[in-house]
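re: that complex we talked abt at group meeting.

here r the seqs, copy pasted straight from the sheet so there may be weird spacing, ignore it
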Amino acid sequence: MPELDRFDVVVVGAGPAGLAAANAAAGFGARVALIDENELPGGQIYRASRGSISASVREVIEDLSKKSVVRFDGSTVFEAPSDGVLRLWGPRGTQDIGYRSLVLAVGGRELFLPFPGWTLPNAMGIGGLQALVKAGLDVREKRVVVAGTGPLLLAVGAYLLEHGARVPIILEQAPLKDLALFGAGLVRYPAKIGQGISLGRHIATRLRAGAWVERAEGSRAVESVTWRKGGKSFQTECDFLACAYGFVPNVELPQLLGCEIQDGFVKVDDQQLTSVKGVFCAGEPTGIGGVDLSQVEGRIAGLVAIGQDDQAEALFGKRESWKRFARSMDRAFALRHELMELSTPDTIVCRCEDVRAGDLVAWESSRTAKLQTRCGMGPCQGRICGPATQKLFGWTQGSVRPPLSPVPLSALGRPLDEIEN
Ligand SMILES: Cc1cc2nc3c(=O)[nH]c(=O)nc-3n(C[C@H](O)[C@H](O)[C@H](O)COP(=O)(O)OP(=O)(O)OC[C@H]3O[C@@H](n4cnc5c(N)ncnc54)[C@H](O)[C@@H]3O)c2cc1C
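got the structure back, here u go
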C-alpha cells in the first residue's frame, strides 16, 4: 500500500468558506490539501460557468497555486476510515489522505417542500436550474416561474433574464411587510443595498410577495403552475419551474466524524472548532448566512488550524456583524405554515423510492418510515426527503454511514484488495 500523504491542514469544500480557510492556512506556510467534488473550485455561488471560473475565484486559485496548496478537484470524500484520515474518490481512483487539522467547509443544499407536481420534469431547485444553465442548458425564450423564498430568488431571476429566459413571475412566500423590514435593515450593509437595487431594477415588476406555488401541472413535463396569494389562486403557463425554500446544511460528513450537531447545525466554538479535536467547521454547515459569513468563518478556521489564534480573533467582530445579517434573513424569510400543508396523500415525498405522503402519515419517526416504506433509502440517502419530512412531520434524521455519496463499486476496491491479500 502506498504511504499515506499527510497534510498540516485538509480542507473539504472549495466554496467561499473552504477557499478562505485554505488561503489563510497556506498564507503561513502550512501544507494544505483542498478537496472538492466539483471539477473546479468556487462552490455553489461561484460555480464555474461552461467550464470557466469567475475572475475573483481565478485570482484566489492563482494565489493558492503560489502557496503550498494541493488541489483535489473532482474528488468526493466518502469515508473516514480512521482517526486523522479521509478517503476520497476522484480522478486518481480511491485515495486516503491524512491531516493534522481538518476544516469542513462542505456547504448546504436547497430545501424542497413537496407539493403536487413538484417531481415533474423541468420542475427543480432555484440554484439547481442556475447550475444547469451554467453547465450549458439553453433557456433562451423559455418561460421560467421562479418561486420559494430568500434573496436567491432575485439573484437567479436576474441571472435567467440575462441568459435570455422569460421570467413571468417570481413568487416569494414571505409577506411584503417582512421584506420591507429586511430591506430597511440593509442600511447597515451598504454592499448589499447596491446588490438589492441592481437586482430590483430587473425584477421588481415580476415579484409577488406573500405568494407560493400550490401545484405544478403538465402531462410529460411542467406546463403551468397554480399559485396562491391573498386567498386567491392563479395559474401561469411555463416551461420550467424553479422552486426551493432556502437551504439546509450538509452535516453528513461532520456527523460521520462524530461532530456534535445542535438544532440541525454543526456546533462550533468561537474558533470554529467542533466537538472533535482538530476538526473545524465553517460556512453553511454551522448556520445559513450567505457568502460573507462563510468567508469570514473559513478564514478564522484556517488561521486557528495553524495556531494563528490572534489573527483569527481580530475577525470575530466582522463575523458577528454577518451573523446579525443572517438572523435578519431568518426572520424575514421564515417559512409560512401553509407550505407544510400542500401535499396530498398522492404527492411523492421520497422521489428516489417513489414514497408518497399518504404512505408516511402512519409512522412516528424517520426510522420506522424507512423500515416500512424505504423512504430515504435511495441514492440521495434522504438528502432531499429528510429535511422535507423534518418540516412536514417533525422527524429527526438518523445516523449516517459510509459511503456518504454514491461512488462506483470500484471506489470501494481497496478494502476488498486488502481482504484478498
Ligand atoms: C444550489 C445552490 C446555489 C446557490 N447559488 C447562489 C447564488 O447564485 N448566489 C448566492 O448569493 N448564493 C447562492 N447559494 C448560497 C451560497 O452557496 C452560500 O451563501 C455560501 O456561498 C456558501 O458557501 P460555503 O463555502 O459555505 O458552501 P458551498 O459554496 O456550498 O461550498 C461547499 C463545497 O463543498 C463541496 N463538498 C461538499 N461535500 C463534499 C464532499 N463530501 N467531498 C468533496 N467536496 C464536498 C461542494 O462540492 C461545494 O463546492 C447557493 C446555494 C446552493 C445550495
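couple things i noticed - The CA atoms of residues 359 and 373 lie 7 Å apart. The mean pLDDT is 94.
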